[in-house]
Amino acid sequence: MIKLQNVEKVYRTSSIETLALNNINLNVKKGEFVSIMGPSGCGKSTLLNIIGLLDAPSKGIIEIDGQKVESYQDKAVAPLRNKMLGFIFQSFHLINDLSVIDNVEIPLLYRSTTAKQRRELAEEALEKVGLSNRMKHFPKQLSGGQKQRVAIARAIVGKPEIILADEPTGNLDSAMGNEILNILQSLNESGATIVMVTHDDAMAKRTHRLIRLFDGTQVL
Amino acid sequence: MIRHLFKLIWNKKKTHSLLIIEIWASFMVLFGLATLITYNVKNYLEPLGFEYENVWAITLNNNQDTMAVAEKVQTIFQSVKGFPEVESLSRMSDAYPFSHSNNSRTVKYKNSNVQIGVVIADENLSKTINIPLIAGKWYRNTDSVGKYIPVVINKMAETALFDNQPAVGKVLNDYYGKATWVVAGVVDYYKDKAEFMLNKPIMFELLKADQIYNKTLVIRVKPGTDAVFEAKLVKAITGIGKGWSSEIIYLTDARQTQHNITLIPVIIFLIICSFLLVNVALGLFGILNLSIARRRGEIGLRRAMGATEGSVTAQFLGEIWVLASFSLVLGILFAIQFPLMNVFDVAGGVYVTAIIIAIVVIFIIVTLCAWYPSRQASRIHPAIALHED
Questions:
Q1: B235 vs B62, B86, B219, CA distance in Å?
Q2: ipTM of the assembly?
Q3: Of B85, B103, B122, B200, whose CB neighbour count within 10 A is largest?
């Protein structure tokens, strides 16, 4: 489902060149739940951004669902991000001025769906994460765990094949973290391919496979 | 997406209230300015109704001399007429074309009751300043023997008094209902306060030669007649009326003065409004820049969810348009009262045009102000924006 070949990412400024990722080769199969671990600054988030087409590699090839990413131009990658990928972030990234259901609808705004379809799909996604009773609430009225569940609902509303989670339990206590991971596991069991960046060994152990990075290099 | 933008703005209405008020206030100022400009442009585009090139007005003042004033005016009239430079000559009231004098009275016809501008002039005025008639004829001195005073009215007066029925031959009553005037002819336009004047009902009334008042002479001179002739005229006039004074006014200059009276306040208002709008635009630009800086996380998120650069630009432009629309709805509610309540007696079409102009200008301003910040927003790298937040 996700294939990276000899991927390298270099950040350049006028005076400094930083190798963030070095020769990464990765193959994530359809339906796999993979965790990425490593110390701070080792390139975990960079790798996730590259998989999520939020950033372009300096070198190497990326394939998503067997389709080689030929261009990283905005118009080429935006539809891929919208249809193939769902993102979950550590800090939730909910829009405080929109209600829960309106937040969940956001990915659907960038594809051709009617307002009615959007509403139905968002309700369905919120139901999956157990928040159907909080649709009209605003993010400020929710707990951290609830916010992350909204973020998960938003990630799955467009029925993407791949879910990318960047430390989804990082801002939550362990009970809430477990709850979120349970949801991710159940999504994985329903067929979603998940790549999760985490610092938490216990969480990583619950995934199918662990990838370790150190100084931008894949060590496991 | 439009619904989404409305929700986003509506949910942030408290935060945006000052911005909404600012745009509303700008709209109201623009509406005022556009009304003023539309009103004047509309008037300017209407015909003047007479010619003023090579036409001079000579005002006569008998000062302390009260002896045989009417005779002396007649002698001056004949003397001026005798100059070969004078092509045509007319005697009239102080309300000569482009003067600052006004005279009006109430005229009645059946149930119509109209306040009408009055110009007292002799039979030669229509020839001297070339006022074309659209019905009937210009009165003659010989008409003064009739039962009623002959008058010529303009189309506006005809409409107001007779509801577009032919006016020629009809008798008009004065304020007390006494039959006083008979309509001899109808002219189309006569805007004696220059092009920017609103076309109003006007009535020309026959001046009797034995009057001691209404002693302004209006002369059409041959093209190229210069100040040398002006000096000759003054000499001739003061030679007849000892102790009299006179002033010669070129109608081209008087017209320019009338234009200045209208245009200078408009230009001052335009300059003040421009400063105001530039300030509003700069403020708006600053607020949008700040707002976008605060919303980098949201921009990153939208990009991650599939928004293209174009859709981010469109979203921010859309937001400001929605915001402007809220302000404009509020503004239109105020502005529409002007035509509905007939404020200042200005035609409803002028207000409606002004509302449309103000709406268009507001949208242009907000679009220009939002364009650069919106483009900047669209260029925010999603990975960096998401990482920062």
A1: 15, 16, 16
A2: 0.89
A3: B122
